[in-house]
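Task: complex structure prediction.
Instruction: return structure tokens for all chains below.
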Amino acid sequence: MNSNELNKIWKSQKHDFFPTPSRQIIKKAKKQRNRQVIGIAVMSTTIIIILLFTLKFANNRWNNFTMGLVMMFSSLIFRVLLELFTLHRKENQLITLNSLSFYTYLKSYYKSRTIINYMVTPLCFVIYTLGFIMLLPYFKRQFTDGFYTYILISGITSLCVIALIIITSIIKEKRFMHELHKK
Amino acid sequence: MKLEENFTEIYNKHVPKVYRLCLGYASGDENLAKDWVQETFIKVWNHRKSFKEKSSVSTWIYRIAVNICLSDLRKTKQHKILNTAIDKSEITAQEEHCVDENIQKMYHCIEKLNTKNKTLILLELEEVPQINIAETLGIGHGSLRTRLSRLKKILLKCIKNEQ
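Output:
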């Protein structure tokens, strides 16, 4: 076997590959872009509403309820914005960098993800939970016992689900990092 | 409309090569390779305005494809090397089996290479011009020929040892 045969073997691959029509690719790309635009619009509107809400209540009616709400939403928004920023940066690097530079970037990307996963995310989670706890006395006063129990159970369940999602993604990214260092 | 026509032309020209390139990264996992091909061309369409013509379109597309393969670290379903006995009367079937076996060995050997060498050999096997290989990877063109010939020898040796 000589080196030309390598190319022959490579070319002889038999795969039933019927590429997706280009029109469908364009359709998918446009759909992806639209989803991104809608996501950004929703996020921006939420941020504006929270800012207006905070400004309105900051001076005269500021209490534990408003504080709790702001803590919950701001920690969530901060975390989502951070995620969007890192994903956007990664995409830009993927398009512009040559493969070796991108590979080096990937290593630093996953290193920064470790900081996000082990420090920023737990901090946001704690702030979010504290905000939720601060709202509970108000809920107890305002709502019936039944509805309060419902809020309590559903709140704790969603916190558990969020924690589970965070843990799963940390495990997944840890495996990614391990694979990256093996390569 | 002209944009879409241009994209279709570029897509049809590059899709088989990009598919085989991704297939090499995915160690023969066709579904994974198809996902990567689709992702590559979605990015090509979405970022078409950011293409600055510093390099050729082909280099830009190969670069995106390689970067997508590098950044997706999903476990590939590696194909097992077949060693089952073949009926000697079925020559065509035997030849096909032999070719298939060699490809599986090749995937296996390529999988053992590091990222840089894997990209080099996959682009070379696709007969991508060496200047484009150098640009895709971001390495000097000078030592590429020697490096590629050394890599081919390593690959051949590995395939023989798999037998």
